[in-house]
Design a protein that fits this description.
The complex is a heterodimer of chains A (388) and B (294). Chain A is of the alpha+beta class. Chain A folds into three domains: 72 residues, ATP-grasp fold, A domain (Dna Ligase, domain 1, 2-Layer Sandwich); 128 residues, D-amino Acid Aminotransferase, Chain A, domain 1 (2-Layer Sandwich); 155 residues, Rossmann fold. Chain A contains 13 helices and 18 strands. In chain A, 48% of the residues are buried. Chain B contains nine helices and 14 strands. In chain B, the strands form two sheets. In chain B, strands 3-4-2-1-5-6-7 form a seven-stranded mixed sheet, sandwiched between helices. Chain B is globular and about 55 Å long. The chains are: A alpha+beta (388), B alpha/beta (294). At the A-B interface, helix 9 of A face helix 4 and helix 5 of B.
Chain lengths: 388, 294
């Protein structure tokens, strides 16, 4: 889960990382009230999960209540690269002497954590990495050993920050590593990490991606989940615990396993169709999961046919078949379903489907069920049905 | 011949008393796998369909001589289950469980490397490993694999692994060993771990490799293949049409900043002399050509 900046700052604050005092607001009046409270000048920052907010006019400095009012009413409701601004973060403006970059993430090749620190912050770090890779000091941290203060200090020295920033940076980076590990984050990034003229170091921005697999040990995350940017289909799928990503085509996809689901998208594309979604019903999919999946796809107005691609390992064929039959009884499926079923107990599953097909011939609602032996055959049939 | 497991491998199932563990543990035994024990500290002394339950992996190893373990423990308990297996004395640990936190994976992977360098971890979030006709550990439906070689399979995706086995069987092509390494951020066994063993295995004459978007494991494998492999390799990479920047199920399957795309991986593999297919069926067709020319 990607956090908004203001959530990221709340997350940082939980681990003692200094951030500017501020609050998230949804109206102009609230913005003025927060600005009066934290003291002028303030910065109003659009809360959207997309880069380039500043250039789009989504970040403004305000010296008094009147300016807050003007900027807040301009920014709230603004469209930034397709993201509507619904939340504004108001914080006390900081004097900036220097801007740095700091982050931790997993280096999959090394199978260790990777810290990156640069004296050239405030800009796109990818650009720095491309034009001047020596400007980024890297450190690999062993997940078992952790990051010691001595290691952290020599890393900071290698990054050639202003010596006045060294102690503050070491302190923040140790806390940032702790937040990354204890908070089960995939990524923590501060850009810019600033040095103020008074010699204080603090986080002016916060980019945090949390590992959803660790939700079970982080009940505090519940507060942040309500604001995720999802379309209606994605919201419905999320509520039902399905891995769903909405796309724009006309062939609805249900598959078990991320690899097979991706491959199903690829095959539909190769035979000239366009997938309407990615939907992985996962390993332990049973009748209820399948029924839920069909219901989610059924709400997509663009879908003209549904391609169910199941290869049974942990998912047993008869469960899949029962799920489809149960879903057909529960909701009226608006599109024909093409199914390809193989693997564990596939014969039992096919027999159940066959029985249903015989007992329920194609009706006027169009809810037909067609079995195909291979992935390519099934994809061709689904694409052909979608183009009718 | 085979890699990692064979008819002599004795397996203890951590979580055999749970519903998934029981279902697949018994299936694996029916297949012919030596399922010698299960563990559950609360049910020591009991049995699951005749398979004795011990309090810990260590006790199971002492009593049965188990050499491998298979973990069906729910995600929150996987980290301690892996360490229990390593401390208990098995040399091969297969973790089927999905949804393990990435930080847990990073910790136990590095802990094993430091304290138990001889223990080979496979997974988490993988379908397991099968040496057809000899040993099946995990959730692969054994009947879809034809024993005997000459092809070795290594795959990051569970269901695409089954797809590959099945397509090869339809073409009457046998498999020495099929390893599902899983799609998580810190897989215990890498493509390269498997490729190097297949290269050394006299019965494996060709290798099929199935990758997916995200990370750089396929690119690293391509480099290894170019430098170290004499045997032919066919590959398929899933996710050509995946929208960038979106996470697709697996924690590992994420594309960002133009790195880790299917196109980049396919290009790297082609550059290493690998025959690269556009879909799983074509991958099997390419492999059939390779096998016919052996």
């Amino acid at each position: 889960m990607d956090l908004f900046e203001f959530q990221g700052k709340q997350f940082f604050a939980q681990y003692g990382i200094p951030v500017s005092p501020g609050e998230a607001v949804k109206t102009v009046d609230e913005a003025v009230a927060v600005a009066d409270k934290v003291g002028y000048p303030v910065v109003a920052k659009a809360q959207v999960q997309v880069g380039g907010r500043g250039k789009a006019g989504g970040i403004k400095l305000a010296n008094d209540a009147e300016e807050v009012r003007t900027h807040a009413s301009n920014i709230l409701g603004m469209d930034i690269k397709g993201h509507e601004v619904k939340i504004l973060w108001i914080e006390k403006a900081s004097d900036i002497a220097e801007e740095y970059y700091a982050s931790f993430t997993l280096d999959r090749s090394a199978k260790k954590h990777l810290g990156m620190l640069s004296a050239e912050g405030g800009v796109e770090i990818e650009a720095v990495a491309a034009s001047n890779p020596e400007a980024i000091a890297r450190i690999h941290v062993d997940p078992v050993e952790g990051l010691t203060e001595a290691q952290c200090r020599s890393w900071v020295e290698a990054a050639k920050l202003n010596p006045a920033a060294t102690d503050g940076a070491v302190d923040i980076l140790l806390k940032l590593y702790n937040a990354y590990v204890e908070g089960d984050a995939d990524l923590v990034e501060i850009n810019p990490l600033i040095l103020t003229p008074e010699g204080k170091v603090h986080a002016l921005d916060a980019k945090v991606t949390l590992d959803g697999n660790a939700d079970f040990r982080h009940p505090e995350r519940e507060d942040w989940k309500g604001l995720e940017v999802l379309d209606d289909r994605e919201k419905m799928a999320r509520e039902r615990g399905l891995q769903y990503i909405g796309l724009t085509g006309s062939v609805g996809i249900i598959a078990n396993g991320a690899g097979l689901a991706m491959s199903t998208l690829d095959v539909v594309n190769q035979v000239g169709g366009e997938p309407a979604n990615f939907l992985d019903i996962g390993g332990g999919a049973n009748a209820t999961v399948m029924a839920n999946a069909l219901e989610v796809i059924n709400t997509d107005q663009n879908v003209r046919s549904i391609f169910i691609n199941i290869f049974g390992g942990i998912t047993r064929g008869e469960e899949v078949a029962n799920g489809i039959v149960e879903a057909l009884g529960r909701v009226e499926i608006g599109s024909p379903i093409v199914i390809r079923l193989d693997g564990t107990n596939a014969d039992e599953g096919r027999a159940i489907l066959k029985e249903h097909e015989t007992a329920n011939p194609v009706g006027p609602g169009g809810g037909s069920l067609i079995s195909r032996p291979t992935m390519l055959d099934a994809a061709r049939t689904a694409v052909e049905l979608a183009s009718r | 011949m085979s890699i990692f497991v064979n008819k002599d491998t004795k397996v203890v199932y951590q979580g055999l008393t749970g519903s998934q563990g029981r279902f697949y543990g018994l299936r694996n035994r029916d297949y012919g796998t030596q399922v010698v024990a299960g563990t559950n500290p609360k049910k020591a002394g009991e049995d699951v369909d005749g398979i004795p339950i011990y309090a810990s992996v260590g006790e199971a190893v002492q009593a049965t001589g188990a050499t491998a373990s298979c973990v069906f423990i729910p995600a929150p308990g996987v980290a301690s289950a892996v360490l229990e297996a390593a401390e208990g004395g098995v040399e091969f640990v297969v973790v089927i469980t999905e949804g393990v936190p990435a930080h847990d994976e990073a910790r136990f992977y590095n802990r094993l490397r430091r304290d138990f360098p001889n223990v080979q971890l496979l997974g988490p979030n993988c379908p397991g490993i099968i040496t057809p006709g000899e040993c099946n550990i995990g959730i692969t439906a054994g009947e879809i694999a034809k024993p005997g070689g000459p092809v070795g399979i290594v795959s990051r995706s569970g269901t695409l692994t089954y797809q590959a086995l099945y397509e090869l069987k339809l073409k009457d092509i046998g498999v020495t060993t099929c390893v599902g390494i899983g799609g998580d951020p810190v897989p215990g066994t890498s493509f390269i771990d498997c490729l190097s063993r297949f290269e050394a295995d006299p019965d494996t004459k060709a290798v099929m490799m199935i990758g997916e978007i995200g990370g750089t494991a396929e690119e690293e494998a391509a480099e290894f293949i170019a430098k170290e492999m004499s045997k032919p390799v066919c590959a398929y990479v899933a996710g050509v049409t995946a929208p960038p920047g979106r996470k697709m199920g697996h924690a590992g399957a994420i594309v960002s900043g133009g790195k880790g795309t299917a196109a980049a991986k396919m290009e790297a593999l082609s550059g290493a002399g690998v025959r690269v297919a556009q879909n799983p069926t074509e991958a099997a067709d390419l492999m059939a050509d390779v096998v016919a020319g052996l």
